[in-house]
Design a protein that fits this description.
single chain, Cytochrome C Oxidase, Chain A, 18 helices, globular
């Protein structure tokens, strides 16, 4: 296989000037999908570090019995915001960063279908994240857990504005996520390059499409729950009060019918990244492409039928428990299909052991461990013993950190050269991988045994003499090293920006269209749009694939101009949220006015100006 098209990349590297030049105002008003992807990535990684610091504080508290470093109230705030931050402010937007930057390039498009909606989605996420974290400055952060179970979220048990920040902040973030998801659904369906049928799309684009449908379908469920909770807290309704005919389990159903598809919203982008990386570093096409595609669709479909395995301990009865046990076991099949396809791709390949492949292999191994403990929870009898113990903490971290974050780091090392035009250090990358892999297992593997020995989760301390001391200390030491491993990655990025080697258009000899343009790509991505006739157009021989070239006879394409109105519209929604939070209705109306002015300007501003 050859890398035809890699050298068609318009005559060498573009500097950063063409893609990222301009002052702060150019970034504030940008609608370029690449810049928005960079802003998503930087913001999400910042909140990833914030969530990590929250986790380290909790681990320091649990490092020894009867510790008084953190009081119970602050501990409740930390574990609530840690879970919320990692799920909604770090992992999801990190995936969105790659959706924004990579997907239009992979499908041979010049931008997303709705560039201004894309900018609005980012600014609403960013301002919503700041809004939620501002709770620390106004009487304390949310303290009822990232799952928000009733009746812990009632005004009786959580007075003040803490939970109100959480409720309104999540609704704002939901609007951002749905806006972005709709944009990518329309983009992928309508803007694919000529000849790129659905069964020729790159796997990462496929997983982006599936994830976007999941977001659109799943988020309304939690939105309904959040609206009901907001009415309970602000207007005295009693939707979750059993004494008034309400039902505390109604919240759990609404939350988890969103929450388990959310697991796959977090996971599927990583599955797509690994499905792109393994073939490139094995030097052979992905084994069973169609099986990987259809298994992703099946995972999304089955993901809506397993939510009540989070509720085996609430007394749903044997019929419901049996049905949800069966569906939970069934969803392991399409997940296993992907793992066997990756292994088959690696088998017999000419492996190039570089950092992206290391993290991909780390993802597979850690995700298998998390999946195996997940199958254990498919049995209601087993789950009943493990519910609300540290065994569950171990499981969720093996899936969401050992799985998702290893895959996301694989994607960072793979695509950052395309984003910046410079190579990260492979030596530092491998050092980062090994320290992260070892410290991750030292941190979370002992928590399986802590749970089996009876240590409850969500408690701020424990008595001495229960046999928890050694494993908690091991977990705390591992977490400190795990946090330090992130500093290696940050140093690698800073070093790359100062003196990283030029990446060239296609440093990995990849097969998909993003590698056929320069690193970083020009503002318009492709001066001449490509035509494809195969799944791996840059590896194809004599298929008639037309790679984009820098034809000087073709004028630069016209691109959408910058706009301030998406940010203004997002500000209007945040002002409305602040008014609702403080029940200051004149502020709500001011926010509505700002939003309407922003939408009006957005609608009537010329697209190209």
């Amino acid at each position: 296989m050859s890398a035809t098209g890699a050298t068609a990349a318009e005559g060498g590297d573009h500097s950063h000037e063409g893609t990222y030049s301009g002052g702060p105002w150019s970034w504030i008003t940008t609608v370029d999908h690449k810049r928005i992807g960079v802003m998503y990535g930087l913001s999400a990684f910042f909140f990833f570090l914030v969530g990590g610091i929250e986790a380290l504080l909790m681990r320091l508290q649990l490092g020894s019995p009867e510790n008084t470093l953190i009081d119970p109230d602050l501990y409740n705030q930390l574990f609530t915001m840690h879970g919320t931050t990692m799920v909604f402010l770090a992992i999801m937007p990190l995936s969105a960063a790659f959706f924004n930057f990579i997907v239009p390039l992979q499908i041979g498009a010049r931008d997303v279908a709705f560039p201004r909606l894309n900018a609005f989605s980012f600014w609403l996420f960013f301002l919503g994240a700041l809004f939620m974290n501002a709770s620390f400055l106004f009487g304390g952060a949310p303290d009822a857990g990232w799952f928000g179970y009733a009746n812990l979220t009632s005004t009786q048990y959580s007075p003040g504005m803490r939970i109100d920040f959480w409720v309104i902040g999540l609704m704002v973030l939901g609007v951002s996520s749905i806006a972005g998801a709709l944009n990518f659904i329309v983009t992928i369906i309508n803007l694919r390059a000529e000849g790129m049928t659905f069964m020729r799309m790159p796997l990462f684009t496929w997983m982006t499409l599936i994830t976007s449908f999941l977001l659109v379908i799943a988020f309304p469920a939690i939105t309904v729950g959040l609206v009901l909770l907001m009415f309970d807290r602000m207007f005295g309704t009693l939707f979750f009060d059993p004494l008034a005919g309400g039902d505390v389990l109604l919240w759990q159903h609404l939350f988890w019918i969103f929450g388990h598809p959310e697991v796959y919203i977090l996971l599927l982008p990583g599955l797509g990244m690994v499905s792109e990386i393994i073939p490139v570093f094995s030097r052979k096409p992905l084994f069973g492409y169609a099986f990987v595609v259809y298994s992703g669709i099946l995972i999304a479909f089955l993901g809506f039928g397993v939510w009540a395995h989070h509720m085996f301990a609430v007394g749903l009865g044997p019929v419901a428990n049996t049905v949800f046990s069966a569906t939970t076991m069934l969803i392991a099949i399409p997940t296993g299909v992907k793992i066997f396809n990756w292994i088959a791709t690696l088998w017999g390949g000419s492996l190039r052991m570089q950092t992206p492949l290391y993290f991909s292999l780390g993802f597979i191994s850690m995700f298998i461990i998390g999946g195996l403990s997940g199958v254990m929870h498919a049995s209601a009898a087993s789950d009943l013993q493990q519910t609300d113990t540290y065994f569950i903490v171990a499981h969720i971290h093996y899936v969401l950190f050992g799985g998702v974050m290893f895959a996301l780091f694989a994607g960072m090392y793979y695509w950052i050269p395309k984003i910046t035009g410079r190579m990260l250090s492979d030596r530092l990358g491998k050092l980062h991988f090994w320290i992260m892999l070892v410290s991750f297992n030292v941190t979370f593997f002992p928590q399986h045994f802590l749970g089996l020995h009876g240590m409850p989760r969500r408690t701020f301390t424990y008595e001495s003499g229960l046999g928890f001391e050694a494993m908690n200390l091991m977990s705390t030491v591992g977490s400190m090293v795990l946090g330090a491993s992130m500093l290696i990655f940050l140093w690698n990025v800073l070093r790359m920006l100062r003196k990283g080697e030029p990446a060239g258009a296609n440093p990995w000899e990849g097969s998909t269209l993003e590698w056929s343009t320069t690193s970083p790509p020009p503002h318009y991505n492709f001066r001449v749009l490509p035509t494809v006739h195969s799944r791996d157009p840059l590896w194809a021989e004599d298929t008639g694939d037309s790679m984009p070239g820098d034809d000087p006879s073709v004028a630069d394409p016209h691109m959408p101009g910058p706009s301030f109105y998406p940010l203004l519209s997002a500000v209007g929604i945040i002002v409305m949220a602040a008014g609702a939070l403080t029940t200051t209705f004149p502020v709500v109306f001011v926010g509505v006015g700002v939003l309407l002015f922003g939408v009006y300007g957005w609608a009537f501003q010329p697209l190209e100006h």
